[in-house]
Amino acid sequence: MQFKPKVKAPAPEILQNMQAVLEKNTLTTVCEAAACPNRAECYARNSATFMILGDTCTRACAFCNVKTGHGRDVDVNEPQRLAKAVQELQLQYVVITSVDRDDLKDYGSGHFARCVQAIKEKNPEVKIELLTPDFKYHRDALGTIVRSGADKLAHNQETVRRLSKSVRPQSDYDRSLKVLEYYARYSPLHVKSSLMCGLGETKKELLVTMRELLDVGVSELTLGQYLQPTQKHHRVARYYPPKFFDEMKEEALSMGFLAVASGILVRSSYFAEDLGEKL
Predict the structure, then answer these.
(1) CATH of the domain at 205
(2) How many separate domains does the chain show?
C-alpha cells in the first residue's frame, strides 16, 4: 500500500494578506503558483519565495507545472516592486527564483542581482537566498550571481543521473553539478541543492547523487516527495513513507552535509531560513 501525503488547509487570513500585497505589486510567488501546501506556514514565519522574470519558462521539464513558451520582455520595475512588497510584508527571509530564460543574453542573471540590490536598499536586514537556473553554465552569468550580495546560493539537481534526461530534457545533470561547483568555489556562502524522491530512482542512486553534490561543495540539502501536477507530467513511481525521509536525513548528515531538510512535503525553499540558522 502506497503512502499518500495529506495536509491541513492553510490559514485563509494569512493567504489573503499575502495575495493582496502580491496583486498590488504585480508579483508572483512560487508558493502561490504551485499552490504549495506549506505556504501559510512559511508566510507566518515571515518567509516567502518569489518568482521573477515572468511566468513563462523557455524549457519544459516533465515535473514542472509552470507554463512554457517565449519569455516576455523583462520588467525593469520588478526589483523595486519586489523590494516594496518585502517591506510591506515585513519579511525576514526571502528566496528569489525564476523560470529559465534561455532567450536572454545574460539568462536573467543581471535581473537577479538588481532584485537583491533593491531589496537590500530598502530592507538591509533581510536575508536573501537565490535559487537560480543553470544559466547554461555561462560563467559571466554565474559571476553576476556570486557578486550579487545574496546571503545564500542554490541550484536544484532535482533527480538522479539515470532519470535526469527524461525529467529535465533541456537541462544536463553534469552541467548542474558544475554550476553548484562554481558557486561553492567562487563564493564564501553556503550552497544548497534539492532532490525529488519518487520519480523512479533507487535509494542507491540517491546516495550516489548526494555524494556527488557533496564533492562539488554543496553543504545544504533538501529531499521531498515528488507529486505529479497533472496527468501530462511525469508519473509518481512511488510514494515514500515518512520513515524513509527520516532515514535519508540521517544518511545525508552522516555523509557530511551541514544542514538537511527531508520530508514528504519538503520543497527546495521549505524552512529555508531555519536551514541556514542551523549553520
Answers:
(1) 3.20.20.70
(2) 1
